[in-house]
Design a protein that fits this description.
binds adenosine-5'-diphosphate; disordered N terminus; about 45% helix; alpha/beta
């Protein structure tokens, strides 16, 4: 549907003044839907109305606008605006909120209106649009030749960070975006021109380019310096980060434009470096279900965050989530957290009183955001007061003899007695949610407020006195004085008593069974009462705004306290879950050994309860690659994930599900899980598997932990086995990689690597054949396995007995057949066996040719005798393998 030309601005006719105002506002915000405030509604006109009525499924009507045709119109009630806003921003629209800036009562002619804010998917702060336990980020990405700058902001809390990605910028960008899970992205023009890359970004969240001028280095730097009121950005430590500064400056410009400068709560620019944390790529985050379940339907407890979250405040929940999303890579920092968790863990009374005191603390961080946004109302002020009042108890709960981190946090909690006292004195006990209807200010706080209140209270008494007096004077017993908003005060007399009404009563309104009158005396009193009330409401508003302005100056103090509370809450949450689930304190060291005794998978153990079988893990430089074999369903991936989760939990500063754990400081954790678990749409599963493997081989270091689950399964057996074998060789090579690796495979052949390749050790997960079936013992033991129990597992899965029996028959034949000398009598499978034998031969031929080529290519003239000897030994080994 399109607007007809005659209803469009510019067609003949004269627009009404209000429509002119609408159109000039719309012109200033062409890429937004304009919510134009008219009384109790936000109205949309023209194309905006058509779009909104379609998207929100609301009725499209029309309104006279001075042109020959009515303007298409639709509207949403102000009271229900949040829900509609939510629907629109979820669909990627931006909404400009245009408010009445003056009171219609005080305006001559048309009411002044202006856009107070532009709500975009990444900048919504309305209650009901925000999850309490996670940050809502908008990010800005600046792609330059050398690097990608990535800035992020949460406008509900004031968090503002920047980082620069330089090594493998695009891959790193996706890792970081998975961590931040932004709701909106702005990018520089150059990035948008790379259509394929931009499209990939758009699959993550709403993305669009923003003005190129904002991304220019000088403008961007100036923008940041102006906002933070600093002469140079050196104090933030981001000098020289050109792409980062450009991204952050553009983000600041965008926020200024959309939030109309309500950014007092963005007080600092935090520079982040990837190498300061344990790096987790997008695939690993997903596979290990750190904060998001693989399967949305599996419930909150399916994630590590859901499991460990015992926080009492929203701030604490967000902090814990951020810790889990970004584990540390600094032994001292990890130890500091572990010390704090340990102290709380050992002292349940201490933890109990910390928890109890935190219970009273509201979301100070977002309340501070609301102050900056001027959306802070008197109820928020009460919540803030109650929170501040609870802080001394939080501090008192932390006794003197505590580890440094807890002592530091204690010192950072500022109960702000001055502010608390002010709010206590100023804010009424049960204020309304709006600040324009009075009832905000407590009696005793301001003389004039008390005087106006007195006047209206006294007026109530006078009214009662007049009522009694008039009853006596007229003899009308049921005469009563009433009030309504349209007619004001009146004296009401029922029809049967009308003959007793005196002349001095002036008729005001006639109803079915009564008449309403006014007297001179009542008129005067009315103007006194209403005058006083209007003045009271105006004064209360003024006082409240002054108070809010004063609080704006204190935002940094609120934020410091909020951060301390959040950390304390996250620490107690870790301690509480450690106690509840029986975790142990891990030891982080700078050596290379992983030694876990009785390790458990934190989430699977909750589901399996007593049935969960704990397992040890031991890896070090000498035993760096564990080949883990065992039947399907034996518990291979559970075991591998438990090792990774334990390592990650330790670097978060959490206790771990084990009886003891000594762990080296890890730089990265990588995972590559079975092809069937592939999530990326589009690519073939084998392609995904190989891309992920390539990523690991290129980036893993000696300090990394790698989980490989069934590499090579997505292709034919021989291909797969060869790839798996070669991957093992690469990873186990201490020069090329040397990462601590857990390699789960159903290729029993890989067990042969132990003894051939330095650092490889075989493990298997035990299962026992019982009759026709299999019992999983789930114990990880040394040694390879030569049995796959595939058929038994298939039986467990419910394959029909006839199919199971047939499979057994085929298996026996296959096992009896001689692969190296297939006979035509191997009917049924003969063809396959011959083909496989041929395949083997082809492989061998290829290896022979490679050897001959290597010999032919030798540059013997350029070799020293020692080099020649080394090469000769290598060639001999290769030749022997081919015999
Ligand atoms: P695999 O990777 O070998 O196919 P999984 O690791 O997926 O096997 O485990 C299959 C199921 O076995 C899991 O869903 C879990 O319920 C159970 N399981 C795994 N490990 C254990 C264990 N150590 N103790 C008890 N149950 C386990």
């Amino acid at each position: 549907m399109k607007t007809s030309d005659s209803a469009k601005p510019g067609a003949s006719g004269r627009l009404t003044p209000m429509m002119q105002q609408y159109l000039s506002t719309k012109e200033e915000n062409p890429d937004c839907l304009l919510f134009f405030r008219l009384g109790d509604f936000y109205e949309l006109f023209f194309d905006d109305a058509i779009t909104a009525s379609r998207e929100l499924e609301i009725t499209l009507t029309g309104r006279d606008c001075g042109l020959p045709e009515r303007a298409p119109m639709c509207g949403v009630p102000q009271k229900a605006v949040t829900g509609y806003l939510n629907q629109l921003i979820q669909k990627g629209y931006k909404v400009a909120i245009c408010e009445q800036l003056t009171d219609p009562k005080d305006s001559e002619g048309i009411v002044e209106r202006g856009v107070v804010r532009i709500v975009t998917p990444g900048t919504a702060v309305e209650e009901g649009l925000l999850d309490r336990d996670r940050n809502h980020y908008i990010v800005s990405i600046c792609h330059s030749e050398k690097a990608i700058g990535l800035a992020s902001a949460d406008v509900s809390t004031g968090a503002f960070t920047v980082m620069e990605l330089t090594e493998n910028p695009r891959v790193e960008l996706f890792d970081e975006l998975t961590r931040l899970a932004p709701s909106e992205m702005i990018v520089n023009g150059a990035l948008k021109e790379d259509a394929a890359f931009f499209e990939a970004l758009r699959r993550i969240a709403f993305a669009d380019s923003y003005a190129d001028w904002a991304f220019q280095l000088d403008t961007a730097r100036k923008n940041l310096e102006t906002h933070f009121a600093v002469a140079s950005l050196a104090s933030f430590g981001c000098e020289g980060m050109d792409a980062g500064v450009r991204a952050a400056g553009a983000l600041m410009a965008y926020l200024n434009e959309t939030q109309k400068n309500a950014l007092a709560h963005i007080g600092k620019l935090a520079v982040e470096t990837r190498s300061h944390s344990l790096m987790l790529d997008a695939v690993t985050r997903r596979n290990l279900e750190l904060t998001k379940p693989l399967n949305e339907g599996s419930g909150k407890r399916a994630t590590l965050f859901g499991l460990l979250n015992r926080t009492k405040t929203a701030m604490g929940a967000r902090m814990l989530r951020a810790w889990i999303d970004q584990p540390l890579f600094d032994k001292d920092a990890i130890d500091a957290r572990l010390d704090a968790v340990d102290a709380l863990f050992r002292d349940p009374i201490l933890t109990g009183s910390v928890q109890e005191s935190l219970q009273e603390v509201f979301d100070i961080e977002r309340l501070a955001g609301k102050i900056a946004y001027a959306s802070f109302n008197a109820r928020d002020a009460l919540a803030l007061k109650r929170s501040l009042a609870a802080l001394p108890a939080v501090r008192d709960a932390l006794q003197n003899d505590l580890p440094p981190m807890l002592c530091d946090l204690r010192g950072q909690i500022d109960p702000m007695e001055d502010i608390c006292d002010l709010l206590e004195r100023a804010i009424a006990l049960d204020p309304p949610a709006t600040i324009k209807e009075g009832g905000l200010i407590k009696s005793g706080y301001h003389e004039q407020v008390d005087a106006y209140r007195d006047a209206s209270n006294r007026a109530e008494e006078w009214l009662a006195a007049i009522e009694i007096r008039e009853r006596e004077a007229t003899g009308i017993k049921n005469l009563r004085i009433g009030f309504n908003k349209v007619f004001g005060y009146y004296i009401e007399v029922t029809k049967s008593n009308l003959d007793q009404v005196p002349f001095r009563f002036q008729r005001k309104q006639t109803l079915a069974n009564c008449e309403r009158f006014i007297t001179q005396e009542l008129k005067e009193l009315e103007s006194q009462i209403l005058g006083a009330q209007d003045k009271l409401v105006a004064l209360e508003y003024e006082l409240f705004v002054a108070l809010r302005d004063l609080l704006t100056g204190e935002i940094a103090r609120f934020q410091q306290t909020a951060s301390a509370i959040a950390q304390l809450d996250a620490l107690q949450s870790l301690a509480a879950s450690a106690a509840e689930y029986g975790y142990a304190r891990p030891v982080i060291h700078l050596g290379d050994a992983i030694e876990i005794a009785d390790g458990r998978h934190p989430i699977v153990e909750r589901m399996e309860k007593d049935r969960f079988v704990a397992n040890d893990s031991a890896l070090d430089d000498g035993h760096r690659l564990m080949i883990i074999t065992g039947p399907n369903m034996a518990g291979k991936s559970t075991y591998m994930r438990q090792v990774a989760l334990i390592a990650i939990m330790a670097q978060i500063g959490s206790f771990v599900p084990a009886t003891s754990a000594r762990l080296p400081l890890m730089d990265r954790v990588f995972t590559r899980v079975g092809a069937s678990d592939n999530l990326a749409g589009g690519q073939s599963t084998f392609m995904v598997e190989m891309t992920e493997t390539a990523h690991i081989l290129r980036n893993a270091t000696k300090r990394s932990l790698v989980l490989l689950d069934e590499i090579g399964r997505g292709t034919s057996t021989f291909d797969g086995l060869s790839i798996a074998w070669a991957v093992c060789e690469h990873i186990a090579d201490p020069v090329l990689c040397g990462a601590k690796t857990l390699f789960a495979t159903h290729y029993h052949e890989l067990s042969e690597l132990e003894g051939i390749l330095d650092g490889v050790v075989n493990y298997r997960i035990t299962a026992k054949e019982v009759g026709d079936g299999v019992v999983f013992l789930r114990k990880v033991v040394r040694g390879g396995t030569d049995k796959s129990f595939g058929i038994q597992v298939a039986r467990l899965a419910g394959l029909p007995q006839s199919v199971i029996d047939r499979a057994r028959e085929i298996l026996i034949r296959l096992e009896d057949a001689d692969l190296n000398h297939p006979k035509a009598s191997d009917t049924l499978l003969g063809f396959d066996l011959v083909a496989q034998a041929e395949h083997l031969e082809r492989n061998e031929n290829a290896r022979q040719s490679a050897l001959i080529r290597d010999v032919a290519n030798l540059e013997t003239d350029a070799m020293t005798p020692l080099e020649a000897l080394t090469v000769l030994t290598q060639l001999k080994t290769q030749a022997k393998e081919l015999l």
